[in-house]
């Protein structure tokens, strides 16, 4: 490892020297600089839990079936915004930093690098105790990024360089950062996840209360206040100890290989999940979106599983719910694209515990439009909110009785090249020490059955609850 550090410091020194002319021509005093190196191994496996918990802010994002992992540690630059103008304010700051960005990415054997990592809450809200560690919108450039793309591994070192700093100071800091990183890398075997010592929010009384909310939602639909509303519920767990996130990711990876796995840690809080829902992927001037809505349980065997899938694809209530999402996506992106392609035939996305109707949508982007402002129009989709959007948002706030925070919010990454991938934070939970809050929701439309909707939330909660066993003592 000493040889790698020495070689990296030499490469970093040359990179800084080669960048001096560009820095001098820039009128700004601060520059965002990203330096990348190839790694022989990822240093991620077996180190996730350790790295997450020793850093104030850290972010893990994986797509197992695409062999893609990004793990960001500490903050070089952070853009945090609260309030209704969070999209516009963030977009403005991103554009300002784009003009002050220098990297060596073009020298590396890869075409797309994550730069900003982070999240946005489902809705603008004044943080309560549960979500006090997270702002309405936070995107940060980590100091260290460990990246795995297929079988290639990379390390990125990001920092804001001030004209007041000497090159020697910057080089010494880079060397110290590498030494600390590799010294602290832990390859310890993952522990078993803790047991559930206590659970609240799943009693018969809680069930009755939530089903009454669904009835109220159906009344609003019959009154034409909304066409669809997504109502969620939460369960509070007391665990025997803190979760081990190497173990969590290992189970997620095994059970949900075609989902997006994420862990976002800040302060004392960790938000994590395995979401099947891609909000938007930007690459090569195109956007890809998954319309995912309409659900059914998995069958006990292949024959029953196929039968349930066929029923789902023919079910009027679920198709209605799904088509709301497709229409919303097409309308939201209409002003940002040149054309749009919607798969002519919907498919079934099969997960370990549930199956959904899936329709893939793609389009070519207008170059003059902002990726971030497109997200503002797209989010939240009817899959997690309802239609019309504003009416559904107000109804959700009135009925649910708690703040969703990052649950059903935006999780993902992007860079200055209009590349990025954003997912919806469902099948997720918030962990603080040994306390955990798990969330699940479902779309309420005309003819929804409150009992069946409750059963659907039970299926979705299993994504998190199956990580732990109930304490029988």
Description:
- With 473 residues, this protein is an alpha+beta fold.
- The chain folds into two domains: 2-184, no CATH class; 195-470, Anthranilate synthase (4-Layer Sandwich), CATH 3.60.120.
- 34% of the residues lie in helices and 34% in strands.
- It contains eleven helices and 24 strands.
- It has helices spanning 2-25, 48-54, 86-98, 167-184, 204-222, 245-255, 302-314, 316-333, 371-378, 389-400, 450-465, and strands at residues 30-39, 57-63, 68-73, 77-81, 101-103, 116-120, 137-141, 144-149, 152-162, 195-200, 228-239, 260-266, 269-275, 278-283, 286-297, 337-342, 347-350, 354-365, 386-387, 410-414, 420-424, 428-432, 435-444, 469-470.
- Strands 1, 2, 3, 5, 8, 9, 10, 11, 12, 13, 19, 22, 23 and 24 form a 14-stranded mixed beta sheet that branches.
- A hairpin with a 2-residue loop joins strand 12 (260-266) and strand 13.
- Helix 1 packs antiparallel against helix 4, helix 3 (86-98) packs antiparallel against helix 9 (371-378) and helix 5 packs across helix 11 (450-465).
- The longest helix has 24 residues, at 2-25.
- The radius of gyration is 23 Å and the shape is globular.
- It starts with a helix and ends with a strand.
Main sheet record: 14 strands, mixed
**Number of structural units classed as domains:** 2
Under the CATH scheme, the architecture of the largest domain is 4-Layer Sandwich
Discrete helix count: 11
Q: What gross morphology would you assign?
A: globular
> In CATH's first tier, which class of the largest domain applies?
Alpha Beta
- Determine the fraction of residues in helical runs and give it as a percent range: 25-40%
The helix/strand class is alpha+beta
